[in-house]
Amino acid sequence: MLKKSLEPLPTPSPRGRKAIKVEPRIILDAALKVFAEQGVAGANLRAIARGAGCDPALIYYHFGSKEGIFEALLDELFGELQRELAKVVGETTGQPTQERMRQVMDLIVRQLRTRGRGLQGIARGEVVAGAEGTRISIAKRLRPILDLLRQVFAEGMAKGEVRADLPLPILPFFFLRPLVEILELIPVMSAHLSDFPPEEALAMALTAWFDLFWNGASPSQERGDRLLPAVAKSPL
Amino acid sequence: MLKKSLEPLPTPSPRGRKAIKVEPRIILDAALKVFAEQGVAGANLRAIARGAGCDPALIYYHFGSKEGIFEALLDELFGELQRELAKVVGETTGQPTQERMRQVMDLIVRQLRTRGRGLQGIARGEVVAGAEGTRISIAKRLRPILDLLRQVFAEGMAKGEVRADLPLPILPFFFLRPLVEILELIPVMSAHLSDFPPEEALAMALTAWFDLFWNGASPSQERGDRLLPAVAKSPL
DNA sequence: GCCAAAATTCAACACGCGATGAAAATCGCC
DNA sequence: GGCGATTTTCATCGCGTGTTGAATTTTGGC
C-alpha cells in the first residue's frame, strides 16, 4: 500500500484492510471500457474491478449490483449526451435544418468517440442476455435524445426545410441508428477492406451518410415519385 | 421413452440410453431461437437442449462446441438468404433499380421475419463477448450479400438510376443496416409508443425508410447541393 | 477517548456453464 | 451371433461469475 503522503487522493482517506482509495468515478470508467468491449452479458465484475484497481466487493458497495453499475453508467453517458445535445439544439435555433443537424451529428460523433467506443458499444447492448431489461433501460434514456432530434425535424418541417410527408416519430431513428453503426463498423471494414486509412474512411462515410439522408440515392433528374401517402403523425 | 411405433421419426432409430431421436435440424431450430433471444454470450447449451428435447451432450456430438453450432447456424441462415437474394437479383436484371431494391427489401424482410427474429438477432451478435470472433464470422457471411446489393447499385449507377457520386462500397450497408434495425426496433417502439398496430407501424416504417433512402429528407424544391466531392471508388 | 459509521479488502458461497467420458441401446456388416 | 460403429443419455468435472459477510482501518460526532 502506498504511504498516505504519496497518494494523490482526494478526501476521505481509504479505509479497510490494506485499503487503496478508489473513487466511484474510476470504477465507472473501468466499467465503461469493459461493457463496451465485451457487452453486458460478457462483461464481468472482476474485470471491471481489475481495471479500476479495487476489489469486486467495492463495486457492490457503491452500485449495489452488476445491473446497478450498468444503469449508473447509462444515466451518466446518456445524461451527458442529452445535455450537450439540448445545448446545441438551443444554440442553433433559427439556423437551417441541415446545418443544425450537421452540428448535431458532429456532437454525437464526438461524444461517441471520446468515450472510447463506450456508448456505442452499450447502445447496442440490446442484444445481450437479459436484453429485454437492457433494451428498456436504453430505450428510456434514448427517448429524450430522439425527442430533441424530433424537435429539430419538426421545426424544419414547419420551415419547409424537411419533407413534411416523412413520419416524424421515426425520422430521428432513421438518422441516428445508421450513424451509431457507422462509427462502429466503418473503421473495422475499412481497416480490412479499403485503401482508405480508417479516419478518412470514417469521415467519408459520415459525409456520405449525411448527404444520403438529405438527398437520397436517386439522381436529381430522376427523382422518384413520393412513395409515401400522407400520414397522420402518430403521437410519439 | 415413447414406443418406437408411436415415434414420428425418420430413420435411423434412436440409440443410447432411453434414447429419443432428435435430428440435428431440430437442434438448429432451437439454437436459432435461443441465440436470437439471448445473444451468443447469454445463450447456453442447456437451454438449446431443452428446446430441442435432448441432452446437451448431443449438441457436442453433432456440432463439436458452442461455437460450432453457432457457425453452423450462420452458414445455414446466411447461405439461404444469399441464395434467395442471388435469385432475386438475377430475376430482376434489367428492371429499374428501385424496383429491384424493393424486391430485395421484400425478400430480406420476409427472410428475417420467417425466422422468428433469428437472423436479425444473430446479425447483431457482434456485441457479444468474444465479439471479435463473432464479428468476423458474421462479416464473412455478410460479404457476399453486400456484394450482391453492391452489384445492383453498380448497375443502377451505370444506368443513371443511382447517383454515381455515392460511395459504392458502403452504400449497401447504408441500405441494409437500418432495415435490419427497423425490423427489430419499430415493432417494439410501436407496441409501447404508437397508436399504430405493430404490423402497420412496421409496414409504414419500411416504406418510409425505402422512400427516404431514395429521395432524402429534403423537400424536392430545396434539394441540397451535393455534399460529396467526387470520390474514387475504393476497391471493396 | 469511545463508538458508530463509512469504506475498503479478504475469503468464501452457490450456482451456472462449457465440456467430456462412460454407459447403454441400436444398427449393419461379416 | 459377434462385433464395431453410431448415437443417445447420464453423471460429472473444472472453472468462472455474481454476490455476500466478516475483518480491518479510518473518520467524525459526542
What are the key terms here?
homodimer, 236 residues, mainly alpha, Tetracycline Repressor, domain 2, 9 helices, 65% helix, elongated, disordered N terminus, disordered C terminus, DNA-binding
The strand count of chain A comes to 0
Q: Stretches of chain A where pLDDT falls below 50 for ≥5 residues?
A: 1-11, 123-131, 229-236
Biggest protein-protein contact in the assembly = A-B, 70 and 71 residues
Please report the number of helical segments of chain A: 9
What is the percentage of strand-forming residues of chain A?
A: under 5%
Rounded radius of gyration of chain A (Å): 22 Å
CATH architecture of one domain in chain A: Orthogonal Bundle
Q: Between the first and last Cα atoms of chain A, what is the distance in angstroms?
A: 55 Å
What characteristic shape of chain A results from the CA principal axes?
A: elongated
Describe the protein.
2 copies of one chain form a homodimer. The first copy, chain A, has helices at 24-42, 45-52, 56-63, 66-91, 97-114, 118-123, 131-158, 171-193, 198-215. Chain A has 236 residues and is mainly α. In chain A, α3 (56-63) crosses α4 (66-91) and α4 (66-91) packs parallel to α7. The radius of gyration of chain A is 22 Å and the shape is elongated. Chains A and B meet through α1, α7, α8 and α9 of A and α1, α7, α8 and α9 of B. Chain A binds a DNA duplex (30 and 30 nucleotides) through α3.
